[in-house]
Structures are given as structure tokens and as C-alpha cells.
Amino acid sequence: MGRRSGNSQGNRSRQLIMAKHNENLRRDTKVVIAGRKPEWTGPVVNPPVWRASTHLYPDMEAFTSDAKRNEDGQFFYGRRGAPTQWALSDALTKLESGAFGTTLYPSGVAALSGALMSVLKPGDVLLVTDNAYEPTRMMGLGILKQFGVVTRFFDPLDLDSFAQQFCPRTKAVMLESPGSLTMEICDVPAMTAIAREHGAVSLIDNTWGSSLGLPALQHGCDISIMSLTKHVGGHSDLMMGSASAGKKYYTKLRRTAQALGHVVSPDDAALALRGLRTMPVRLDKSSKTALDIAKWLAQHPEVSHVLCPMLPGAPGHELWKRDFAGGCGLFSFVLKSADETARARFIDALDLFGIGYSWGGFESLAIPFDPAPIRTNSAWPPKEWGTGAHLAIRLSIGLEDPQDLIENLEQGFAAMEQA
Ligand SMILES: *Cc1c(COP(=O)(O)O)cnc(C)c1O
């Protein structure tokens, strides 16, 4: 009894030792201990939810001599966060190999805009991958244009044309791999090397791979951005984003986020931390099920293409194997049918799949997509597929039993046949 009770000092030093060895540990262990500083958690496992705008100073002396008020992890004012948010951002930093710090944002889109605004100024040129998440594309054509930044799009699969697109005004490159919806894997190390040669900053939307699946900073990216709404939240009940970077770019990210007034609620930060602890288990399970389903779809007579980088033989698989340590449950496939109403019947018949945006939750989702009209600098559908309709569907695979999902998809194909 004596050993266990009243031993908070021992407990503290044990946790500090755990934190110190963080670097040498493996993925799953790191995820369990990341960000759990005893000064933030106290004697419990998770940091309490510190709901706070005002942080009180003990006296005038402390108020007037607070030289550290603008440093991370210091009480100052609610917009700078409190231990709940600090613990989340510290955990994300520990999990992003090579990062010095992580800024939190109220959504993934806010993280993308906040990160871009931290590295761009009027007159600069931004290169964005042509298969980017659509709001990223719209940011380039909308708000960034309004502030004098020129956005150009590049084909993620053509390194030569990518290299040719740089000009002296090119200051930043936005990558995303795999690309949204169409799932192309780009050569991240080669592209970031080209960007660096031209003095441009490389940013990546790393939502699909996450810091666990794609060590983005190790592959040459300067800023790694995630929509925490997806894998980290994991339960379809929170919106948040993050951007992690080494010291130079973290300083810019943080300054810009503060200038823009970005802050996340402590309740959401606590939910995100809770989600984070089970993320490897969920990613492993949904990746495995997604791969089983991708294999099943690949030999289905109604399917023409499976766009799943984890699937041997699928587009991008070799680069995925080279650069990624894991995958997730999100992938797409293309129907042989050119009949849009048949595709709608297919999706309507999937009663285990929700119809809706977002992904990375515990429940499976399905949506149709037709990216051709928004592409400008790369071909969709790929030329070798030939002309005609290529009706596509994106699946986000959750934690259900794979066999039930396959039977549900069978039900979808059966409904497609019925005219
Ligand atoms: C969902 C998503 C985002 C945006 O995240 P929100 O949290 O919904 O704002 C950004 N990038 C990708 C690839 C996404 O799928």
C-alpha cells in the first residue's frame, strides 16, 4: 500500500522518464505516451478539460514581469490555449518525426489556409497538385488570389513538367499524396527536392497517411498538415486540423495562427486526444478490411479500376510501398457501367455505408465522384483508360466486419443490374 499511495513524486519521475525515451520507441508505444506530461495531466491519465479565456496572475509582480507570456506552454490568455490543447499539440509533434512544434486549427481547411498564409505574400506563386482536396484548390483560386498570390496547378505524376513550372516567384508547393478522390501517389522525396532547389517551401496535406503512415518531414516536406477530423478524431464527432513543422516554419505557423485568432476548444482537444490513443488500432483494422475489399473489387466483373495504393498492382502501389509505413480505409474504384442511375442504385443499396462527406470514422461511407470538370493540368480519366464514362465511387471503410461489408457491396451490384 505504501508503495502505491502517496507516491506521486515517483509517478512523476516515471512519466518523465517515459517522455525522455520517446524517440527510441515504436509507433504504438509512442502513441500511448505522447504528450502526457505530468504537469498537464496531474495524477490522472488524461489532461483535464481546461475551459478558460482568462488566465489569472497571482499578483502585479507576476503580471508585469511575465517575459514568457508568448511562449508555448505558458499561461497567458485563452487564445494561447491551456494544458488540454498543449497536450494534444505536443503529442502530435512527438508523432511527426522531425517536428519542432504543431499548431492546432478549428478544421483541416483552417490548417491548410493558415499554413499557406504563413509562407506566402502578395506577388508569390503557389504550385498546387492538380488532384488536391477541392477546398485547397478553391483557396488558391479564391482567397489567396484576392491577397495577390498566383496559384498554378501541376500534374502530380509528371516530375519534368512539375520542375518546369517553377519561376523566380514560386515560393511554395502544396502536395497531397494520395490525391483526394483519385488516389494518385506522387514522388514526395523527388518533388520536395525539386522545390528546395528552387527555394520553395514544401507543404503536404498528409491527412490520408497521417504522421504514422507517411513521415512527411523525413521525406523533405517543410510543413505537414492533417485534418484531425479524420483519423485522429476517428468517431465522426469533431472538426480540427493541425500543421507540424521544424523550428523555422513552426515559428511562422504559430505567429500566423495567432494573428488570425485560430484557437481550438479544450473539449474538442480532449476528444482528439482520446481518438489519438486508439488511432493505430483503428488504422490497422480499417486498412486490412479496405485491402480485402479492394482485392475483392479488383476481380469483380462490374469494376474496371481499383484506386487503392495499398493494393499490389494498383496505381501508385510501388511508391506507396517505398514511402509509406501504413495506409487507411479510404480508397476509390471505377465502374464499368456508364449509367449514372445504376451507380445511384448501387450506393442506395449499401445500407451499411452512410452517404456523406468526411471519412476516417468508425463507420463506413460511400460517395460518387466525377473529378473531370475541376482538373486543369492532369488527365482524368487517365488517357489509357479510353474515352467514355468512368463512373467512380469512394469508400471510407470503417471498423465493421469485412464480410458484412462485402455482402453489402454484392447487394449494391445486384441493385445496379435491376433496370
Ligand atoms: C477532409 C479533408 C480536409 C479538410 O478537413 P476538415 O477538417 O473537414 O476541414 C483536408 N484535406 C483532406 C485530404 C481531407 O480529406
Number of domains: 2
Secondary-structure content class: alpha/beta
CATH topology of the largest domain: Aspartate Aminotransferase, domain 2
| Chemical compounds bound to the protein | pyridoxal-5'-phosphate
Catalytic activity: L,L-cystathionine + H2O = L-homocysteine + pyruvate + NH4(+)
Cofactor: pyridoxal 5'-phosphate
Protein name: Cystathionine beta-lyase
Keywords: Lyase, Pyridoxal phosphate
Give an overview in words:
The chain is an alpha/beta fold. The protein folds into two domains: 252 residues, Type I PLP-dependent aspartate aminotransferase-like (Major domain) (Aspartate Aminotransferase, domain 2, 3-Layer(aba) Sandwich); 137 residues, Aspartate Aminotransferase, domain 1, CATH 3.90.1150.10. The chain contains 17 helices and eleven strands. The strands form two sheets. It has a seven-stranded mixed β-sheet, with helices on both faces. Strands 8-9-11-10 form a four-stranded antiparallel β-sheet, covered by helices on one side. Strand 4, helix 10 and strand 5 form a beta-alpha-beta unit. It is globular, with a radius of gyration of 23 Å. The N terminus is likely disordered. The site of pyridoxal-5'-phosphate has 13 residues, from helix 6. It is an enzyme of class 4 (lyase). It catalyses: L,L-cystathionine + H2O = L-homocysteine + pyruvate + NH4(+). One of its GO terms (molecular function) is pyridoxal phosphate binding. Belongs to the trans-sulfuration enzymes family. Its EC number is 4.4.1.8.
